[in-house]
């Protein structure tokens, strides 16, 4: 089957978008979509200062997500108490109106987190190059797009030229065989992969997730998996498009229709890596052996299965890793050797671009049904679309009667830029993606886990094994 | 952009792995205008404790390193978010070069965009440089970008690699958009062919 022309999915997408090449072999890639949130206002300021125009306004999408409040949304921008946060949302609106880019603003019925809105609007297609002002833009890789985050200067570059200079990443294959056990989700798989390859394990690479366990994942679960790719140091993660991808896209607002749909579909079918395509490196994982994962430290590779104990830093050989683990445990206020399930939790956040889609809320509601939370717990849907879908299924009633708060869409407690913060010293079970010191607020302590595990923590008031809740 | 050629400056040793962008600048400052002086927010929660009081032990608060323009650190420096504010904070503080065994991809791209040199040396060299800087607090070192060397007063010289395009951009202080716009015709030609091949994308559908 070996063939010299066999190409990886990544290579096919990169070849399709290459406009020019420089002496170092970096490519000038054409960008299909450029997605921004309130953060990179510097890019718009810079563009205006330099007297440049947005080259392709219909290919830039602005989402108000980081600074929008999750309560009192009926008042729109006026409902934002903090003047600086209000200014961020307002500035995005002004920049969007001035440059005529697509805008999902605070009042928009489809408003939500950029990495939730773009896929659910059908903007992310297989084979696209998508960049965004947030590192979790790699979420769109679930569709077989080459998608990655960029800083404000590069956003500005894309605004001005619709292209970007890119160092083509190495192709790394993550092969996950077997079947994930009940209670084990894409989040657990992603945390297990990061724990295995390390926070810089994917540096300079684009990961392609393959294997039966990946094929079995829903589109939403694939988005969770790709979302966390950046936490392994890789810029981009991809899953080859298949029937699930096409079914998900069909009829979405920005998906092709009619004859275009058929043409697009046959093109998309040519994208998966050819048999015999060579990857620069490969990692195999047995998905059937994984359990629910929880982070115990302040980086995402400091994670272990819920049934285990906190590692003893003294037993870590590498002096750098040992020092890091010691520092992490001191910050987290946990003693080595403590069973994870002995750790009491102060509050719970179910949300973020990692885990706030319909599947995630269903998983949380299944655990919450007929039970009561012991600690403050908020559920923040990833978008207003997700919120409406969840309400149509009655998920909000299940969650509300269990004592969860049911909020409006946004990034919320993932970074707390809208004011939804974890108070200093408090310990939060969170479905988000980052657990570094101060991520959810100065002095906050974060344990990352899946939505079902976070719901179980809310009900137990401590870290709990969700498998004891789902009657396996 | 200010060209980067020869830099002789105080270097601060801060050898930690995975220094992330949240540590470099906490998210809550990213809503400030650049005029607020992002240098004040650099390592904010490490530099300052309760009531904004300075932590006297933090490296940049020590007298010898206050005017550091070079920071020497551990592998995977700048991991985490895309926030360019992390580089604005370094730059505004006065840091013009970073030395580490490796940098996070997005972060190093952001550095280049802002005239900050992300310089990689082997882990061994970085550690020996840190040892030197710890033994001689406040010592200056010299980075010669055209020659691709770092040298210390004890006459140790380290060579480093950097892609040619990045080097030229830093040395000449070139603006990337300007470079790209020389390819305007290529972009237009590409776009026409691309849209003909994938007609369902053209023109990119509606606005909301
Ligand atoms: S949910 Fe968190 S990680 Fe995702 S875009 Fe928002 S702030 Fe960034």
SSE map:
The complex is a heterodimer of chains A (472) and B (208).
Chain A: H1 9-17, E1 18-21, E2 27-30, E3 33-36, H2 41-49, E4 60-63, H3 83-99, E5 102-104, H4 114-120, E6 129-132, E7 146-149, H5 152-161, E8 163-166, E9 170-177, H6 186-197, E10 205-210, H7 212-215, H8 219-227, E11 236-239, H9 243-249, H10 258-268, E12 281-286, E13 293-295, E14 303-305, H11 319-332, E15 347-350, H12 358-368, E16 377-379, H13 384-392, H14 395-401, E17 405-406, E18 427-430, E19 445-448, H15 451-460
Helix pairs in contact in A: 2-5, 6-8, 12-14, 12-15
Chain B: E1 6-14, H1 21-24, H2 44-47, E2 70-73, H3 85-93, E3 97-100, H4 105-113, E4 117-120, H5 123-135, E5 140-144, E6 149-152, E7 157-159, H6 164-172, H7 176-181, H8 184-197
Parallel strand pairs in B: 1-2, 2-3, 3-4
Antiparallel strand pairs in B: 1-5, 5-6, 6-7
Structural description of this entry:
The complex is a heterodimer of chains A (472) and B (208). With 472 residues, chain A is an alpha/beta fold. Chain A folds into 3 domains: 9-166, Aconitase, domain 3 (2-Layer Sandwich), CATH 3.30.499.10; 170-272 and 279-289, 3-Layer(aba) Sandwich (Aconitase, Domain 2); 294-470, Aconitase, domain 3 (2-Layer Sandwich). Chain A contains 15 helices and 19 strands. In chain A, helix 12 (358-368) packs parallel to helix 15. Chain B has a single domain (6-173), classed as Aconitase, domain 4. In chain B, strand 6 (149-152) and strand 7 form a beta hairpin. Chain B is globular, with a radius of gyration of 20 Å. The interface between A and B is large, with 79 and 57 residues. The structure holds iron/sulfur cluster (SF4).
């Amino acid at each position: 089957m070996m063939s010299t022309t066999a190409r990886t999915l990544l290579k096919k997408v990169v070849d399709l978008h290459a406009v020019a090449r420089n002496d170092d072999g970096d490519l000038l890639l054409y960008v299909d979509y450029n997605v921004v949130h309130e953060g990179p206002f510097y890019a718009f300021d810079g563009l205006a200062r330099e007297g440049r125009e947005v080259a392709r306004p219909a290919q830039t999408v602005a989402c108000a997500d980081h600074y929008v409040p999750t309560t009192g949304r009926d008042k729109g921008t006026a409902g934002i108490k903090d003047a600086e946060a209000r200014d961020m949302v307002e500035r995005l609106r002004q920049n969007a109106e001035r440059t005529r880019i697509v805008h999902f603003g605070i009042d928009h019925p489809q408003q939500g987190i950029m990495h939730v809105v773009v896929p659910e609007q059908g903007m992310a297609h297989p084979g696209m190059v998508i960049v965004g002002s947030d590192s979790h833009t790699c979420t769109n890789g679930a569709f077989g797009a080459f998608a990655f985050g960029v800083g404000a200067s590069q956003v500005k570059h894309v605004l001005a030229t619709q292209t970007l200079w890119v160092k083509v990443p190495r192709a790394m294959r993550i092969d996950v065989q077997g079947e994930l056990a009940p209670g084990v989700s894409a989040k657990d798989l992603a945390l297990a992969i990061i724990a295995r390859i390390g926070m810089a394990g994917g540096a300079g690479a684009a990961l392609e997730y393959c294997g039966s366990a990946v094929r079995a994942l829903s589109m939403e679960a694939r988005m969770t998996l790709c979302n966390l790719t950046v936490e392994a140091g890789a810029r981009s993660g991809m899953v080859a498009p298949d029937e699930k991808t096409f079914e998900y896209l069909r009829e979405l607002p920005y998906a092709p229709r009619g004859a275009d749909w058929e043409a697009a579909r046959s093109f998309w079918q040519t994208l998966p890596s050819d048999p015999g395509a060579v990857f620069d490196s490969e990692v195999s994982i047995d998905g059937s052996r994984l359990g629910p994962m929880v982070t115990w430290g302040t980086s995402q590779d400091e994670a272990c299965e819920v049934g285990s104990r906190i590692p003893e830093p003294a037993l870590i050989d590498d002096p750098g890793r040992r020092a890091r683990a010691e520092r992490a445990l001191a910050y987290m206020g946990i003693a080595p050797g403590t069973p994870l399930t002995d750790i009491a939790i102060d509050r719970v956040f179910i949300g973020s671009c990692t885990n706030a889609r319909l599947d995630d809320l269903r998983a949380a509601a299944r655990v919450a049904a007929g039970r009561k939370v012991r600690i403050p717990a908020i559920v923040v849907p990833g978008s207003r679309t997700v919120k409406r879908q969840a309400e149509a299924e009655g998920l909000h009633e299940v969650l509300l009667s269990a004592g969860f708060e049911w909020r409006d869409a946004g990034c919320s407690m993932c970074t707390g830029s809208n004011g939804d913060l974890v108070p200093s010293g408090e310990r939060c079970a969170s479905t988000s993606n980052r657990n570094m010191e101060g991520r959810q607020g100065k002095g906050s302590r974060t344990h990352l886990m899946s939505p079902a595990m976070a719901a179980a923590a809310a009900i137990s008031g401590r870290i709990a094994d969700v498998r004891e809740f789902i009657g396996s | 952009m200010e060209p980067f050629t020869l830099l002789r400056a105080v270097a601060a040793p801060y050898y930690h792995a995975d220094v992330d962008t949240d540590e470099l600048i906490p998210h809550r400052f990213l809503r400030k205008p650049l005029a607020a002086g992002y240098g004040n927010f650099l390592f904010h929660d490490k530099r300052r404790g309760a009531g904004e009081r300075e932590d006297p032990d933090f490296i940049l608060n020590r007298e010898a390193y206050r005017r550091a323009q070079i920071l020497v650190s551990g592998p995977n420096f700048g991991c985490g978010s895309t926030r360019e504010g992390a580089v604005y904070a370094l730059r505004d503080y006065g840091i013009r070069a970073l030395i580490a065994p490796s940098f996070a991809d997005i972060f190093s791209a952001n550095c280049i965009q802002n005239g900050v040199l992300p310089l990689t040396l082997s882990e061994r060299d970085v550690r020996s440089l840190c040892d030197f800087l710890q033994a001689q607090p406040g010592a200056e070192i010299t980075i010669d970008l055209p020659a691709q060397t770092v040298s210390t007063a004890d006459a140790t010289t380290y060579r480093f690699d950097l892609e040619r395009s990045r080097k030229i951009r830093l040395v000449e202080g070139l603006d990337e958009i300007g470079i790209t716009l020389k390819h305007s015709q290529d972009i237009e030609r590409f776009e026409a062919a691309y849209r003909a091949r994938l007609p369902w994308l053209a023109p990119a559908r509606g606005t909301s």
